Amino acid sequence: MTFQYGTIVKKTEEILLEVTNVKQEQIQTRILGIAPYEGMQAAMERAADNNPDIHLDVYLGDLEEGVSIVREHQAEDYDCVISRGGTAQMVQQVTDIPVVEIPVSVYDVLRTMRLAENYVDQYAVVGFPNITETAHTLCDLLKTPVNIVTIHSAKEARPVLSRLQAAGYRMVIGDMVANTVARELGMNAFLITSGVESLHEALEQARSVSRIFRRLRQENRILSKVLGEGAGSLLVLREDGEVYYPQNADPSPELLTLLRGKIPEVPAHGTLQFYHNRTGTLYRVVAQKLPIGGARHYLFHYDTAPIPVRPEKNGLRSLSKNECEHLFSSSFYFLSGALGELEPKILSMAATRKPVVILGETGTGKEQIASLLYLRGTQSSKPYVVVDCAMAADKAWDFLLNHYSSPLNDNGLTIFFQNFESAPEGRARDLMNLIQASDLAGRNRLLFSCTCPEGGGMPDSAAKLIGQLACLILTLPTLRSRLDEIPSLASLYLGNLNLELGKQISGFDAHAMEQLRRFRWPGNFTQFKRVIQELATITDSYYIRNTDVAEILSRERALAAPARQEETNLPSLTLKQIIRQAVEQALQENDGNQTAAARQLGIGRTTLWRYLNNEA
């Protein structure tokens, strides 16, 4: 890359004139935001929308991940960086751009402690000093005895939380590091989020410190324009592989690693050309040496082109371990800690190679539990294949049963036959014959799921499957059988929704929780998750209103009413028989608990006993 001196001077004069003609009021403060969780990312973007003189680009990343993001973007013309806690402190060490830390207020800590108290009496506060110093002050003022532990690096989090877990703590509140590690250890956790006031304070400080960097930002723009804007992307690396200058370039970590590895191959004279294929994109790269100030630098010019990707067959999917981890991490079981007593049984089954049949009503999370069996099993380094028997068309079945490249001909996979009861009878028979004739269950890990009707027994297809393959049986509980856990499940999921939606909801109005406990939940955990998510979305206060709960549950009852009408034939019954049927149904929905059934029906336990014994 060579330029004539006169051309450079002329280009520089043009750019200087362009920059000086820009009115001061049109210049925006450019801020790079690093958010440790999704809710803060959304809240930062909303706060910036109310400040037209601020241009804010927010990326999701915590600690080392946040530092990597800043390293990748620090060559761009940002005036400052805003972040929170330990991430802000780490970023200050790797960039010359001023860093503004989003404060954690006393109210932020108090609100999270109150939310945690809705779940358990005993919990610990774990975090960096910006969290724990505020917690100490708050607990001293309120005279509240809380175990507060300060960490100074991400490496300290796991041993600290392991000791707390061994001491009997099931709940912690803290920053993103403590929150993440606690969930990995199977503990429940609440993240201390920063409120809107803290974000506005950080933006105001960022606006102030950025003014002194305006001149430097303009000079960088001049340099970028002088270099010119060619097609593709330019990236200049130092000899040690660090980024010296990017132009229209935002390389992925994988591509950056590849370019660094090519540095020894770049010739002293001439160019090095090569191609790289990554996730359906073809990179064409040209590299050459570039002396700058007597030191060796390396210029990489690359452009991209998409590669056509063959779509997957309907009803057949192949997932990696990372994709399965994402699938389970977004499930209600993970977000609310709802596995409960089911977890030891799942872990025991995951350690074996026996086929497993997962049974449960609609909405009990059979797909998510299957992914957990794969993740905790011995085959998690190999692909995870899902065959949705309800979606697979004839071509998909033909491919699966007859094609040489079918996953059924592979070894060491985990294959999940979802909705097995929906497989056509002939296809199910052919599949069973193939499994037994080819030792498929010995070569691969097989998982099946079958949907059981509400209040009904096991489907015939599941019974045949279990008998022929000697499968292990995993029956998922209904939400109706766990009504006493609804307050804790709702509080834990609400904590996650606060992060996702950028809200600070602390709980439910009086009687709102009782309505949730009395509802029969025909759609189980899927329906419960959807309802709580909708309530959190429409709520504009710190508590979910009783009226909103009543309205949404009324709609849910109306949606389920046609199915309930088909189950009963009330006009042919006497009033006494109708009452007796209602009592028996309430008992069934509450697993024989007469107190809970009476509460659901709005009658006393003595009255319920009289109806059962035909004395009323």
Characterization of this structure:
By secondary structure, this protein is an alpha/beta fold. The protein has 26 helices and 21 strands. The strands form five sheets. The protein has a six-stranded mixed β-sheet, with helices on both faces. It has a five-stranded antiparallel β-sheet with strand order 10-9-13-12-11, with helices on one face. Strand 16, helix 16 (394-402) and strand 17 (414-418) form a beta-alpha-beta unit. It is globular. Residues 1-13, 306-312 and 565-570 have low confidence and may be disordered.
Outline of the structure:
With 616 residues, the chain is of the alpha/beta class. It is built from 26 helices and 21 strands. The N and C termini lie far apart (97 Å).
